[in-house]
Backbone:
């Protein structure tokens, strides 16, 4: 399979595939710039020795809002690692039915994470399901950003506020078939959009999406932007480079 020169997967869970090392090797061989998010700092520490030598696969320090049992136990570890982690995610809030019982704990945790990220230049990808407004308020309070809102499903009014605050959005294959995806491409400037897979949680042709499936989103962008796929690739790569060039020696 031949891959284009510029490909970005800004949010994927490589550690959750049955064969994470093969997925990482395939991603690296294809020269796909992939942000391998984690759900806990313990998983970040486990993955670091395996991915530290890769050029294109970047491991991200995470504490997922639905990792309820880990919120209190692993937060100190997260805070101790954030100084050296260039990429951060998956972090954020989830006020859906699945996360409603832990909303207060999530907010407490996210506030502490945001405080730790204040004035730190990091690539940050966040989860904000049904909690977009609160997430934005906390980010603004601690002057964190720009960040990347992963798989945004909120309202148009909140989306516009997020754009005005200078943040970015990442789009996966599932979103290209959804109302939220159409909203993003219609309302968000091209220089604030990135591609993602969220694999293995998103499926493509009935199979878990790995970073190589991000080309489906590139093609969707090219059609909506009415540009060649190669131009869409360059735009997305430039957006990713803008965010990662801020990392300096950490990158």
Residues:
């Amino acid at each position: 399979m031949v891959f284009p020169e510029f490909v970005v997967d800004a949010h994927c869970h490589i550690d959750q595939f049955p064969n994470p090392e093969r997925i990482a090797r395939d991603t690296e061989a294809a020269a796909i710039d992939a942000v391998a998010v984690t759900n806990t700092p313990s998983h970040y520490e486990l993955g670091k020795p395996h991915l530290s030598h890769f050029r294109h696969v970047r491991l991200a320090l995470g504490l997922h809002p639905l990792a309820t049992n880990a919120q209190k136990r692993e937060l100190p570890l997260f805070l101790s690692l954030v100084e050296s982690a260039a990429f951060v995610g998956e972090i954020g809030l989830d006020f859906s039915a699945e996360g409603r019982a832990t909303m207060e704990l999530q907010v407490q945790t996210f506030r502490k994470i945001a405080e730790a990220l204040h004035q730190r230049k990091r690539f940050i990808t966040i989860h904000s399901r049904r909690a977009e407004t609160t997430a934005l308020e906390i980010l603004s309070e601690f002057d964190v950003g720009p960040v990347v809102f992963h798989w945004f499903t909120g309202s148009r009014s909140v989306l516009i506020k997020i754009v005005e605050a200078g943040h970015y959005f990442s789009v996966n294959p599932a979103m290209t078939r959804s109302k939220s995806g159409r909203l993003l491409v219609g309302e968000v400037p091209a220089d604030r959009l990135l591609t993602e897979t969220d694999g293995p949680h998103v499926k493509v042709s009935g199979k878990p999406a790995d970073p190589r499936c991000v080309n489906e989103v590139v093609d969707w962008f090219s059609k909506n932007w009415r540009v060649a796929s190669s131009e869409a690739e360059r735009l997305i790569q430039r957006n990713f480079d803008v965010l990662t060039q801020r990392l300096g020696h950490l990158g």
In short: Strands lie at 8-12, 33-36, 57-59, 87-92, 123-127, 148-150, 168-171, 193-195, 203-204, 207-208.
